[in-house]
Design goal:
Elements: E1 4-13, E2 16-26, E3 31-35, H1 42-50, E4 57-62, E5 65-66, H2 72-78, E6 80-83, H3 95-103, H4 109-114, H5 131-144, E7 149-153, H6 161-176, E8 180-184, H7 188-194, E9 197-202, E10 205-211, H8 212-217, H9 221-227, H10 235-238
Helix pairs in contact: 3-5, 5-6
Bound molecules: adenosine-5'-triphosphate.
Keywords: Amino-acid transport, ATP-binding, Nucleotide-binding, Transport
Organism: Catenulispora yoronensis
Domain ABC transporter: 4-228
C-alpha cells in the first residue's frame, strides 16, 4: 500500500462535484506529479486530502491509517503537511519567527541547511522577502514539521524558471530523504524531471496514470491529455 493512499475521492464545490472518484498512490521516497489545466480539480483534491474542504466520497489513508475523518490539525500531527497555493507565510513575522512556529520553539537549523539563501534573512520580515525566498520559507517550514507525506500546490506561482528549478531541487531532496511528495505544478516539464509517477486530471477525472519519464518523453502526449484529444491513455491503458 502506498504511504499516502487516496481512493475513489469525490469533492464537491457548492454542491457540484469537481473531483469524481479519483484514486492516487503516493509512495514514500519519491515525487508523484499531479498535472492538469486550470480548473481540472487539483487544488480541490489536495484540499480534501488535508481536510481544508470535506470529502464527498472516498477515503484517504496515511501509512495504513484512515485520516479522512480526523481534524486537519490531527492530519498534520499524523504526518501530512500541505503547502497551499500562494505565499503561505506570515508576512509580519521574521523568517526565523515563521520557522519557530513550525518547531514550537525547537531548532530551525534544518531549514537553513536546505536553503542557505535564507540564512542572512533570519531577522527580515517574511513579507519583505522575494517571492522565491518566501516559497523557500514555506518549504523550510513544512520540512520542520517532519512530514511523512507532503502535498504541494504550485510553488512556482509568479516565479522565474531558474527559481522554480531551485525549488524543485529542494523538493527532490526532501523526497530522497524518505518523504512521500505529491506535487501539483504548472511548470510541468520541471516537475516531470524530478518525479517518478505522474497523474493527469481533466474535468476532475484521472486521464493518465503512468511514469513521468513516459509523459515527458512522448512527443505531444501531455498536450493531448490536457486538451482531451488522446483516448488511448486512459488510466487502464496507462497501467
Ligand atoms: N471555492 C470554490 N467555490 C466554488 N467553486 C470552486 C471553488 N474553488 C474551485 N472551484 C471550482 O472547482 C473546479 C476545480 O477547481 P480547482 O481549483 O480545484 O482546479 P485546479 O486544477 O486546482 O485549478 P487551478 O490550477 O486554477 O487552481 C473549478 O471548476 C473551479 O471553478
Amino acid at each position: 500500500m502506498a504511504l499516502l493512499d487516496i481512493t475513489d475521492v469525490t469533492v464537491e464545490r457548492e454542491r457540484l462535484p469537481v473531483v469524481h472518484g479519483v484514486s492516487l498512490d503516493v509512495d514514500a521516497g519519491q515525487v508523484t506529479v499531479l498535472l492538469g489545466v486550470n480548473g481540472a480539480g487539483k487544488t480541490s483534491l489536495l484540499e480534501a486530502v488535508s481536510g481544508v474542504v470535506p470529502l464527498a466520497g472516498g477515503t484517504v489513508s496515511l501509512a495504513g491509517a484512515r485520516i479522512d475523518r480526523i481534524a486537519p490539525y490531527r492530519r498534520v500531527r499524523a504526518g501530512l503537511v500541505h503547502i497551499e497555493e500562494g505565499r503561505s507565510v506570515f508576512p509580519d513575522l521574521t523568517t526565523q519567527e515563521n520557522l519557530l512556529i513550525a518547531t514550537g520553539g525547537g531548532s530551525t537549523e534544518d531549514a537553513y541547511t536546505m536553503f542557505p539563501e535564507l540564512d542572512a534573512r533570519r531577522k527580515v520580515a517574511a513579507g519583505l522577502l522575494s517571492g522565491g525566498e518566501q516559497q523557500m520559507l514555506a518549504v523550510g517550514r513544512a520540512l520542520l514539521l517532519r512530514p511523512k507525506a507532503l502535498i504541494i500546490d504550485e510553488l512556482s506561482l509568479g516565479l522565474a524558471p531558474l527559481l522554480v528549478a531551485r525549488l524543485m531541487k529542494a523538493v527532490a531532496e526532501l523526497a530522497r530523504s524518505g518523504v512521500a511528495v505529491l506535487l501539483v505544478e504548472q511548470f510541468a516539464r520541471l516537475a516531470l524531471q524530478i518525479g517518478e509517477r505522474a497523474y493527469v486530471l481533466r474535468g476532475g477525472r484521472v486521464v493518465y496514470d503512468g511514469s513521468c519519464a513516459e509523459l515527458a518523453g512522448t512527443e505531444g502526449l501531455l498536450h493531448s491529455l490536457y486538451l482531451g484529444e488522446d483516448l488511448a491513455h486512459t488510466p487502464e491503458a496507462g497501467r
